[in-house]
Fold:
Amino acid sequence: RGMVRKLTAEREVEDRMDSSSVGHFTVKYEGGENTVTGYLIGLLLEEAYLKVGADLGFYPSDKIEALLYTKETFRDVTRSPSWTGAIFDGRIKVPSGGINEKSAELEKVIFHEYTHALVHRLGGGRVPVWLNEGIAQYEEGRGTSGQSDLLKEIAGSNSVNLRVFERSFMGLDAAGARVAYLISLSATEYMIKEYGLSSLRRIFDGLNGGMTMDSAVSSVLYISYDDLESGWLNSLKR
Structure:
C-alpha cells in the first residue's frame, strides 16, 4: 500500500511537469519557470555522459530521464532520508528548487547520480551498494584524503565486513550513512589504485551476466572477495 501511494504521488507530480530534451537526456521539471534549471542540469548531465562514459567505457544509446523537484516535493515523492541530496531509482531525481547557475556542488550531485544510472545499466541492477556508491563518489571527485585517522580506526576495529554494505543505505541515520559512504569510497579507491578502473567495468559485466560478487571478483582480480577486503583493510593500517 505504501508503494502504491508513493507511485500515485509521483505520477500526480509528473503529470504536471514540463520537459525538454538535452542531448542524451530527457529532463522533466515543475513549471515553466524552471526551464533554465532544466537546461542547465541537462548540460551537466551531458558532461557526465562524456566523462564517466570515458572512465567506464560505456555510452548508453537510449534517453535517460532526470526529474527535477522542489525540495518539499522531492521528500514527499521519494520518501528518502533527510541526508540524501538526490537519488537514482531507475531515473535520476534531484531537488533543484532555486538553482539558476552552475556550481561545484551541483556538478558533484549530477555526476554522482549519472554514475548510478550507468552502473545500473552495466551491472543489471546487481552491483553491491558499497561498490555502486564508491564509484559514484569517485566520479563526482570526492576522495578520502583527510580521513586517514578515521579509516585506520575503522580498519583496526576488526569489525568491518563489506558484505554488510551490499544493500541499501536508506535505513541508516546521518552518522551511519557518513561511515557507510566513507567505507564504500575507501574500498573502491583501493580497487582502482590496485587493479584499475577497467577491472570495475569487468566486474559489472560479470554481475550483469549472472555472477555473484564472489565469482565476479575472483574471475577479474584472481583473488577472493575476502582477500580483496583483507588487502583493502591492511592498506589502511599502514
Summary: The mean pLDDT is 91. The chain has ten helices and five strands. The beta strands are 17-22, 25-30, 64-69, 87-88, 92-95. The longest strand covers residues 17-22.
